[in-house]
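Chain and backbone:
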Amino acid sequence: MKKTIKVVVAAAFAAGLAATQASAEIKLGLDTAPYPPFADQDASGNRTGFEIELGNAVCAAMGETCVWTPIAWDGIIPALTSGKIDAIFASMSITEERMKTIDFSDKYYNTPAALVGPKDMEMDGSPEGMSGKIVGAQVSTIHANYAEKYYKPAGADIKVTYQAFDEHNNDLVAGRLDAVIGDSLAFSDFLASDPGQCCEIKAYLKDEAIFGKGVGVGLRKGDDDLKAKFNEAIAKVRADGTYDAIAKKYFDFDI
């Protein structure tokens, strides 16, 4: 009888320990859609990209186990605030609007937004120059916000229902859009591809209130301990050369 009790207690302890270990995993949210060169998957399903490698390095520097958790972009902040994920590590810009709902770590990269269009079409990125143009951007992004603020009042037709970055690029190639707005680095693979030879960066766009001051890890308000861990780890991988080693695999300039 005593032996049976000991076995039951040991099993309960093991189950409790397993649950504690599982709950200790940090769930890193990222977009379900590919976003090269930041996040992608190879033919075997292995995650690749600058942010994937950096996220793994940051988690190692924290001494934490992290699990990549795909979430549709337009639901990624609700997933964070509801506790489905613990952090957003997915090229999310630190903006005043988002900071009303969530918190951020220190920035870990910063690149400008860009307007991309066909090489044979004139446009300079100015609102008046976009009048009558059809402009696309991914849903629930700072780029969609820019198009709505500047180009829609000037008479552009704004399409901001695209769930994935590749979707509006495909419509641009097909001629269903005259221009698209997105992160300039994210456009690099597209513009280097055969379909992307149609197009070029027409202008770099600026508005700090919309685009923010850089990209950081999105966190729930009040998760100050986790924020401190991320900040310390980001600083560590910058200082020890890990960040630069990863960045050089994907970029030939300082991001």
Notes: Confidence is low (pLDDT under 50) at residues 1-23.
